[in-house]
From TrEMBL:
<dbReference type="GO" id="GO:0032259">
    <property type="term" value="P:methylation"/>
</dbReference>
<protein>
    <recommendedName>
        <fullName>Methyltransferase</fullName>
        <ecNumber>2.1.1.-</ecNumber>
    </recommendedName>
</protein>
<feature type="compositionally biased region" description="Pro residues">
    <location>
        <begin position="77"/>
        <end position="96"/>
    </location>
</feature>
<keyword id="KW-0325">Glycoprotein</keyword>
<keyword id="KW-0472">Membrane</keyword>
<dbReference type="InterPro" id="IPR029063">
    <property type="entry name" value="SAM-dependent_MTases_sf"/>
</dbReference>
<keyword id="KW-0735">Signal-anchor</keyword>
<dbReference type="InterPro" id="IPR004159">
    <property type="entry name" value="Put_SAM_MeTrfase"/>
</dbReference>
<feature type="compositionally biased region" description="Low complexity">
    <location>
        <begin position="66"/>
        <end position="76"/>
    </location>
</feature>
<dbReference type="GO" id="GO:0005768">
    <property type="term" value="C:endosome"/>
</dbReference>
<dbReference type="GO" id="GO:0005802">
    <property type="term" value="C:trans-Golgi network"/>
</dbReference>
<keyword id="KW-0812">Transmembrane</keyword>
<dbReference type="GO" id="GO:0008168">
    <property type="term" value="F:methyltransferase activity"/>
</dbReference>
<keyword id="KW-1133">Transmembrane helix</keyword>
<dbReference type="GO" id="GO:0016020">
    <property type="term" value="C:membrane"/>
</dbReference>
<keyword id="KW-0808">Transferase</keyword>
<feature type="region of interest" description="Disordered">
    <location>
        <begin position="131"/>
        <end position="155"/>
    </location>
</feature>
Length: 686
């Protein structure tokens, strides 16, 4: 009867409805529970390996043993207790662990959406200030671009530049001819008046050529003669003509050279048998060089000699050197460091150079010591000392005493000629008596920091690791990564040698293309300026391809100081800021090369492109050429200014093809037409 009633209940419609509703509820519960708010689909792939590593394959529950079954069937037991209440539903699965990237950044939340409450925090002390400044500059550039778009997207046109009306500017060196500033400082006859005193505003006109200027005499003929009209000042000839340095024949300056310079150099070779010109000795500095006879002669022995002299009462001895095609630069020993790195020169030469090395606690000789390579030679030809009054002999005695105190070894002395050698390490300095002067410079003194840095009355320390002294012989040193490559402040730490080699290969391939496509051998280059030299790969490529020229490698202050590497390679160079004029005469260089320079200067925002390119025009010889390799973002403006200067520009693709973001702008400086003199320049808006 009971069974019949139960069957009747099961068959009732009400029971069926209750059962269906219960099953449907359970189905919905298990269906939607995995996709609750605790589930994070954005992290499923990132957390999957971790989840798999923390789980094991599921296994069936253990079966009861036969003994247990037997006991269950044979043992009597009280009635079973009521069934336990149903267990609560399982808890939701735990949140997957957050990945380190999300914890570190805090920008994206656990659901993969942009967070609105992340904290920026303090700036890390190790954060690169230059990177921060770069980001700010990028924002400024974006604002400028937006402003241009609001103004129709047009930049004010640059009209043709006029030639300066003041004809005396034809030999103008801006930072050395600032008469107003020299008068204001009341420098009188102080050596400081020969240093850089740049005008507050650059010229806004093109420097004129001398009357009757002619295209330069090609090398090597220029070593012996140059046009009289190209260097019309005769003060040097009038002062030194009796010494047979220079003479005038027809419309040419003639440089006899030969005899005296050759005998002087032969004498040095005998006094220093292991000097090894062209192998061990590759880079030299000639102070007070006259017309650079010494440097011109050393070039025949495969030695690059940088001739320096002030723009003094003789006015233009460096101008003669540059017109001849000999490496030279206007520079003087005064109150600031010269713009060359420590351990730059294999030997330094001073022949009647007019420098009193022992005065002011020997500060000038200490500067020469800074630039002299460890183990290098200082050669002093002081013939006039033995022929004039007592105070000159006193200078000689002071020089001998000072050289001993700074641990220079007197190698040999013959009459008026003396040779000293710099030590290879600091041991002599450290073993001196405590009261001996001058002292060693502080360990935090950077001997390669030279831009507007005052001279110091201390001995520059040599690196304990021997960097700078261990250079290989020429020509191997041109392509051998030097030790000082590791001391440059730059981002790369491990791959520096690879970067060095890659730069050399890069420029070798490019210059090979230039020589073939643009006929550089026919161009007869002699004086070349690389305005952003890097490691000197451009100059090295010119040497490898047999282009008979010399290159002044400029390392801008806006980038890493690679000058020590350039000199260790056997090349020459200088530190400079291209927002200021360069210390050379007008019409110095046959070729100006600027790779990526304008992009860098645009980011600095210290000066506009007009300032740089007017200075380029001042330095460039008539019939000279400019190669600018830069990004599309700046090349258009540079092209426009080039046309305004009277250059003939041609825009070309790089080797990467027309879709590259870089272009090459090739400009020829040609004869300016007279009508341009009357044209006026409109204000340029950057």
């Amino acid at each position: 009867m009971t069974t019949t009633r139960l069957n009747d209940v099961v068959k009732t419609p009400a029971f069926i409805k209750i059962t269906v509703i219960a099953l449907l509820s359970l189905s919905l519960f298990f269906l939607f529970n995995p996709f609750s708010s605790s589930y994070n689909p954005s992290l499923i792939f990132s957390s999957l390996p971790l989840l798999l590593s923390n789980t094991t394959p599921s296994s069936p529950p253990p079966l009861p043993s036969p003994t247990t079954l037997h006991e269950t069937t044979t043992t009597s037991s009280p009635p079973p207790p009521p069934p336990p209440p149903p267990s609560p539903p399982p808890p939701p699965p735990p949140k997957p662990p957050k990945m380190d990237m999300l914890i570190r950044m805090g920008i994206v939340d656990e659901n993969g959406a942009m967070s609105t409450d992340f904290e920026i925090g303090e700036i890390d002390d190790g954060f690169d200030d230059e990177e921060l400044e770069h980001e700010r500059e990028k924002e400024k550039e974006k604002e400028k671009e937006k402003e241009k778009e609001r103004n129709g997207g047009k930049r004010a046109k640059v009209e043709k530049f006029k030639v300066c009306e003041d004809k005396s500017l034809s030999h103008y060196v801006p930072c050395l001819d600032n008469v107003e500033e020299i008068k204001r400082l009341n420098l009188g006859e102080s050596v400081e008046k020969y240093e850089r005193h740049c005008p507050p505003r650059p010229l806004d006109c093109v420097v004129p050529r001398p009357e009757g200027y002619q295209v330069r005499v090609p090398w090597p003929q220029s070593r012996n003669q140059v046009w009289l009209t190209n260097v019309p000042h005769t003060s040097l000839f009038e002062a030194k003509g009796s010494q047979k340095w220079i003479s005038i024949k027809n419309n040419m300056y003639v440089f006899p050279g030969g005899g005296r310079a050759i005998s002087h150099l032969d004498r040095i070779s005998k006094m220093i048998p292991d000097i090894g010109f062209g192998q061990k000795t590759r880079v030299a500095l000639d102070i007070g060089s006259g017309v650079a006879d010494f440097g011109a002669l050393l070039m025949q022995r495969n030695v690059t000699t940088l001739s320096i002299a002030p723009k003094d009462k003789y006015a233009n001895q460096i101008q003669f050197a540059l017109e001849r095609g000999v490496p030279a630069m206007v520079a003087t020993f005064a109150t600031h460091r010269l713009l060359y790195p420590s351990q730059a020169f294999d030997f330094i030469h001073c022949s009647e150079c007019g420098v009193n090395w022992a005065q002011n606690d020997g500060i000038m000789l200490l500067e020469a010591n800074r630039m002299l390579r460890a183990g290098g030679y200082f050669i002093w030809a002081a013939e006039a000392v033995y022929k004039r009054e007592e105070n000159l002999r006193e200078q000689w005695r002071g020089m001998e005493n000072l050289a001993t105190r700074i641990c220079w070894e007197l190698v040999k002395k013959e009459g008026y000629l003396a040779v000293w050698r710099k030590p290879l390490n600091n041991s002599c300095y450290l073993n001196r008596a405590g009261e001996v002067q001058p002292p060693l410079c502080d360990s935090d003194d950077d001997p390669d920091k030279v831009w507007y840095v005052n001279l110091r009355t201390c001995i520059t320390r040599l690196p304990e690791n021997g960097y700078g002294a261990n250079v290989t012989t020429w020509p191997s040193r041109l392509h051998y990564p030097p030790d000082r490559l590791q001391s440059i402040e730059m981002d790369a730490y491990i791959s520096r040698k690879e970067i060095f080699k890659a730069e050399s290969k890069y420029w070798n391939e490019i210059i090979t293309g230039y020589v073939g496509a643009f006929h550089w051998r026919e161009f007869k280059l002699r004086n070349v300026l690389d305005m952003r030299a890097g490691y000197g790969g451009f100059a090295a490529a010119l040497h490898d391809l047999g282009i008979n020229c010399w290159v002044m490698n400029v390392v801008p202050v806006s980038g890493p100081n690679t000058l020590p590497v350039i000199y260790d390679r056997g090349l020459i160079g200088v530190r400079h800021d291209w927002c200021e004029p360069f210390d050379t005469y007008p019409r110095t260089y046959d070729l100006l090369h600027a790779n990526g320079l304008f992009s860098v200067e645009k980011k600095r925002q210290r000066c506009d492109f007009l300032t740089i390119m007017l200075e380029m025009d001042r330095m460039l010889r008539p019939d000279g050429r400019v190669y600018i390799r830069d990004t599309l973002s700046v090349i258009g403006e540079v092209n426009e200014i080039a046309s305004a200067l009277g250059w003939v520009p041609a825009l070309r693709d790089t080797g990467e093809g027309p879709h590259s973001s870089w272009r090459i702008l090739i400009c020829d400086k040609q004869e300016r037409k007279k009508k341009n003199n009357k044209q006026r320049r409109k204000k340029h808006i950057n």
